[in-house]
Structures are given as structure tokens and as C-alpha cells.
Amino acid sequence: MRFAVLVIVSAVTAAASACSGPKPCAGVGVTSQIGLMFLQRGYDDLGGAAYELCAGGTCVKGHLEQADITHVNLPLADDVDPDLGAVRFRVTPRGSSSPEIDASSDVKLIRQSDGCGGGAYNRGLAFTKEGGLTTKIPSSVSVAWRDHVKSLASPSEPK
Fold first, then answer.
1. Which long-range contacts (CB under 8 A, 24 or more apart) does 59-66 make?
2. I need a labelling partner for 6 at 20 to 30 A (CA). Which of 24, 64, 142, 159 fits?
3. In sequence order, what are the residues at sequence separation of 6 or more whose Cβ sits closer than 8 angstroms to the Cβ of residue 105?
């Protein structure tokens, strides 16, 4: 009997140790998607304008707020082809029937590991009036996003 308990405990310990690795593995938060940062600088009032971001037969639609920078996220299927092809971004001002912005760019997705043997494909894009739709994020977009995030932070209380 004592031998049987020892064998069971050894088997459970071996199984548990086989599941653990040298570093923790969360496997959370990695999804296939396209993220677009839209710098509205240079455009007249786009508050309320309709936007559409499409790729691989999937689209996301919404309305813009008047802001210096806007982030649009397009979720993609987990089994998306990394050679995605054309990504299209359109913005139609409120009250207009034709888009003021209608841009597209061929995009190859980048694999991001989840650290657990899995992962997803994604890509960050930017759109500016001067540069159009691009995978190369201009510094003006990075600065605008940093300033936007800082503006959302609650002020620290003095110590």
C-alpha cells in the first residue's frame, strides 16, 4: 500500500513538473489584429465622421471624435494569412456621401509569440495627411499618442 501511494505521488509530481517551465507562461493577451493610429492634424472638423478599416474580408466601422489622434483596432481571425494583402482605411465626413480619406496599403502581418508555444499575427499602421497609410510609424504619431495617453492619466497626489 505504501509503495502504491509513493508511485501515485511520484507520478503526480512528475506530471506537474512537466507542465512547468523555467519561466512563467501566461499565454494571455496575444490576438490577431491590425491597430491603426490616425493623426487628424491637417484635417478640418472630423468629429462625427464615419470611418471604416478593412482587411482580409473583415471590417470595423465607427464614428470619430474630434481629437488630435485616434486609435482604431481591427480584430482578425486567429488563422489569418500573414500575407494579408490590402488594408483599406476610409473616412467620410458627417453629412457627406463621399470619403475625404480613401487609402490602402499592402500589409504583411508580423507574428507575435505568446511565450507558450502559440501566438498571433498583427501589425501596427499609421495614417497622416502627409504620409498616408503606412507601416512605418512617424515620430509625430508616436508623440501625439504619448501626449494623448498622458492626458488620460489621473494627476498624482503630492506626497
1. 64/38, 64/40, 64/91, 66/40
2. 24
3. 86, 87, 125, 132, 133, 134, 135
Residue with cell 492634424: 41
Q: What is the pLDDT of residues 36-69, one digit of tens each?
A: 999 999 898 899 999 999 998 999 999 999 889 9
Are the C-beta atoms of 1 and 89 separated by less than 8 Å?
A: no
The helix/strand/coil state of 1 is coil
How buried is residue 114: exposed, middle or buried, by Cβ count under 10 Å (0-12/13-18/19+)? middle
Please give the Cα distance from 6 to 155 (Å, whole number): 58
What DSSP element (H or E) covers 146? helix 139-152
